[in-house]
Amino acid sequence: MRILIAEDEMISRKFIYKFLSKYGECDLTIDGGEAIDAYMLALDEEEPYDLVCLDIMMPDIDGIKALKVIRNIEKERAVPESKKARIIMTTALNDVDKVQQAFDYGSEGYAVKPINTKKMIDVMKRIGLL
């Protein structure tokens, strides 16, 4: 499985990387702009990501905006539903509106930080990655 992690906070980024590395090859980015660039490069190289983890709150381009752009790229390139990335939003926020907005834009799941690995595994199973 190919995994893209977009997380601006170093400790969370390292923790998520270490945890998800058990499940596949992970690439790291520190903001939404880098995540979008990495996602497009992976599509161009015909090695798309299976899972994208986006932090909701990041500098420059936040996770919600990155999510919208990624879903629009998939639509523009006519990526079949079965080949679209599964996207999990990560957040330290207790903001139901932001989480709902993420689901409205095409996120399949979310994980509250600090990440509970058991709950993250449950989310990955629910969206068909495990």
Explain briefly what this protein structure is.
The protein has about 130 residues and is an alpha/beta fold.
Total of helices: 5
Query: How would you sum up the global shape?
Result: globular
Mean pLDDT: 94
Briefly note the structural class of the backbone: alpha/beta
Strand order of the largest sheet: 2-1-3-4-5
Sheet-strand content, in percent, reads 15-25%
Unreliable sequence segments:
none
Largest sheet: 5 strands, parallel
Radius of gyration: 13 Å
The CATH topology = Rossmann fold
Order of helices and strands: EHEHEHEHEH
Q: Identify the CATH architecture.
A: 3-Layer(aba) Sandwich
**CATH H-level name... which superfamily?**
Response regulator
Q: Structurally, how many domains make up the residues?
A: 1
Q: How many β-strands, per DSSP?
A: 5
> What would CATH call the class?
Alpha Beta
State the share of residues found in helices, binned by percent: 40-55%
Terminal Cα span:
10 Å
Overview of the structural elements:
The protein is α/β, with parallel strands linked by helices. It has one domain (2-123): Response regulator (Rossmann fold, 3-Layer(aba) Sandwich). The protein is built from five helices and five strands; from the N terminus they run βαβαβαβαβα. The protein has helices at 10-20, 32-44, 63-76, 96-104, 117-126; strands spanning 2-6, 25-29, 51-55, 86-91, 109-112. It has a five-stranded parallel β-sheet with strand order 2-1-3-4-5, with helices on both faces. β3 (51-55), α3 (63-76) and β4 form a beta-alpha-beta unit. α2 packs parallel to α3. The longest helix has 14 residues, at 63-76. The radius of gyration is 13 Å and the shape is globular. The mean pLDDT is 94.
